[in-house]
Specification:
It is a single chain. The chain is of the alpha/beta class and about 170 residues long. About 45% of the residues lie in helices and about 20% in strands. It has a 5-stranded parallel beta sheet with strand order 3-2-1-4-5, sandwiched between helices. Strand 1, helix 1 and strand 2 form a beta-alpha-beta unit. The protein is globular, with a radius of gyration of 17 Å. The N terminus is likely disordered.
């Protein structure tokens, strides 16, 4: 079957031109960063790092102790730091990378970034939350699976299956 016009795969159908990494700086986002950087390096894709921050009135349904402007600055800085860390990691690996830090719903921001960059793939971490916590707090990875304009790869953290590179790194240091 033919791909839609403007699809992110090349004419030969073998290479990605852009991968979007969704990050919030969490441990699972760090795992997603490693995966996205590895994929971008292997395919020659550009990496677009998307980080979102939401205003405090969206986050807190009650009057917070900290002034609203202070909370907003903290959230914006958290998103900027997460994006900068991921871009630095990509550049260290020789991958072309750019950060997109925007205010708004993370699912909408990441999906829009993927659309704007004509991404072939979105990589996102999974918090591994149970059903109740996911119901209460929502899930960016689940939202992206439903809303994204391209395929989504969810990097799942699972302590029972450690990264096989860990042993290699430990042996190299010893």
């Amino acid at each position: 079957a033919a791909l839609p016009a403007g699809h992110a795969w090349d004419e030969g159908g073998s290479a990605m031109n852009t991968i979007v990494l969704a990050t919030d700086g969490s441990p699972t986002a760090e795992e997603a960063t490693e995966l996205a950087v590895d994929l971008a390096s292997a395919t020659g894709a550009r990496l677009c790092v998307a980080a979102a921050w939401e205003g405090p009135l969206t986050i807190y349904p009650y009057a917070p102790d900290m002034e609203v402007g202070g909370l907003e600055r903290v959230e914006r800085q958290r998103a900027s730091d997460a994006a900068r860390t991921a871009v630095d990691r990509a550049r260290q690996a020789g991958v072309e990378a750019e950060a997109f830090v925007r205010e708004g719903d993370p699912v909408e921001i990441v999906s829009q970034t993927a659309t704007d960059t004509r991404a072939a793939l979105i990589v996102v971490g999974s918090h591994g939350w149970g059903r109740l916590r996911r119901l209460v707090f929502g899930s960016v990875s689940t939202g992206l699976l439903h809303e994204a304009p391209c395929p989504v790869l969810v990097a799942r953290h699972d302590a029972h299956f450690p990264d096989p590179r860990t042993r290699e790194k430990e042996e190299a240091v010893a």
